[in-house]
Amino acid sequence: MHVPASVLLQCIVVFLQSPPFWILCKALKEFVNETGNLPLRGSIPDMTADSKRFIELQNCYHEKALEDVQNISEKLHAILASVGKKTNFIEDDEIRLFCKNAAFLRVIRCRSLEEEYKTFPKCLDGLIGEPDSDVVFYVLFRAVDKFYSSFDRYPGEVDEDVEGDCEKLQACVTDLFKEWGIQSGIKEDYVKEM
């Protein structure tokens, strides 16, 4: 798997301002470089074995997981000390949880919110016209954001304004569709629900 350079850099260089997640990632990276493995979760899947052997094996996994957590904790404390943070900056429970789930870490790339708000995602264009599509709620949330920007409040905050707010929110939806160059609409029921 290819890992972006910006992600690798955050795992290599830790600063005083680095969030706990990236400090934990650096400790995990050092652990993997040293051992060649991720920390054990501490539990084993169900398997066919007599109770005595299953319990013995479970205890072995649990002890190894505790050992891995201790090893990562030591690396983490050294990293924290090197950037001038207290060793209790990241609590033991958070370290254990991170180690338990380290095998499930993934890099997910997406657009920034700024990029998201500049245009309408073209992949959703064909879904707008489908009845009861979940994309309707995406559009409505964007319209609510537009409403808030215009009126400094959310639609329906005041019971007496609900009907007027429905019209204003519908206008926001219409404006969004014009901005995106889409000839479509949203059922009035959805606007009222929002």
UniProtKB/TrEMBL annotation:
Q: Please provide, alphabetically and separated by semicolons, the GO molecular function terms listed in this UniProt record.
A: ubiquitin-like modifier activating enzyme activity
Tell me which species this is from.
Paramuricea clavata (Red gorgonian)
Per its record, how is this protein called by name? NEDD8-activating enzyme E1 regulatory subunit
Q: Which InterPro entries match?
A: Ubiquitin-activating_enz (IPR035985)
